[in-house]
Design a protein that fits this description.
Ribosomal Protein S5, domain 2; lpxc deacetylase, domain 1; 18 strands; 6 helices; six-stranded mixed sheet; alpha+beta; globular; about 260 residues; five-stranded mixed sheet
């Protein structure tokens, strides 16, 4: 893997419904100068993909003015895109099929351009651990990026996966894993203004008996949790070298770990 920063070699555009708003939204992703990072532009607003822009972690990671950024950010991060401009026409990033795969395919189609500036890695000098009830999230020193994630959702049960970004194939092992939820929750979510665009076409749906549509992997839930984790950690604004050990954690805890890594870095 090159230690030089990268941007897109050309632009691409994607359109689709927003999973929470239910409205059509369009993004146009463009090359950016080195050291710029990932920057969202909505109207006259420039919103850097950094922790200070975080607005909400309910059912996704939302920045001030743009909802559900984590799948796109995970694709940028995993493919080594350091700098890009994302023009957003709408309230959120389109959910597409509920995974990061369409973003990965679009980025690879646009190709990457290596820039002259070196990547600026963040490292973890000593372990950082967060615990809340039966959930925990820990970052340990490591020479690359590894995620060891365990979940336990009824009725599916425990799923655990260890994924190494440098060795594993994000495009085939993690990117296709879709967002998921219980069908019993949908009406409550809609009353909160969430999930209005969710469907069997863009989510893996469960009820208390099991899956209601066909999983892409036998452990698709934990693979998607790793996808979300990578996307959330992209708000560090720099690539991270660490081993992440996650047990039943989610967006809120990911954001807190991001905050503590930046504080200690």
């Amino acid at each position: 893997m090159s230690d030089r920063q990268k941007t897109l070699a050309s632009s691409f555009q994607l359109c689709g419904v927003g999973i929470h708003s239910g409205q059509e939204t369009t993004i146009t992703c463009q090359p950016a100068l080195e050291n710029m990072g990932i920057v969202f532009i909505k109207g006259n607003l420039q919103i850097p993909a950094r922790l200070e822009s975080l607005a909400d972690t309910r059912r996704g990671t939302s920045l001030r003015g743009i909802l559900v950024v984590e799948h796109l950010l995970a694709a940028f991060y995993a493919l080594g895109v350091d700098n890009a401009i994302v023009q957003v026409a709408g309230e959120e990033i389109p959910v597409l099929d509920g995974s990061a795969q369409p973003f990965v395919e679009a980025i690879l189609g646009a190709k990457l351009l290596e820039q002259s500036a070196p990547k600026q890695y963040l490292t973890v000098a000593t372990p950082i651990k967060i615990e809340e009830k039966d959930a925990s999230l820990e970052a340990r020193p490591y020479h690359g990026f590894m995620a060891d994630f365990m979940i336990n959702f009824p009725p599916v049960g425990k799923q655990r996966l260890v994924f190494t970004l440098q060795k594993g194939d994000f495009a085939s092992e993690i990117a296709p894993a879709r967002t998921f939820g219980y069908i019993e929750e949908i009406e409550s979510l809609k009353q909160q203004g969430l999930g209005r665009g969710a469907s069997f076409d863009n989510a893996l749906v469960l009820n208390q008996s099991g899956y209601l549509n066909l999983p892409r992997f036998k452990d698709e839930l934990v693979r998607h949790k790793i996808l979300d984790l990578i996307g959330d950690l992209a708000l560090l604004g720099r690539p991270l070298k660490a081993k992440i050990i996650a047990r039943k954690s989610g967006h809120k805890m990911n954001a807190e770990l991001t905050r503590r890594i930046l504080k200690n870095g």
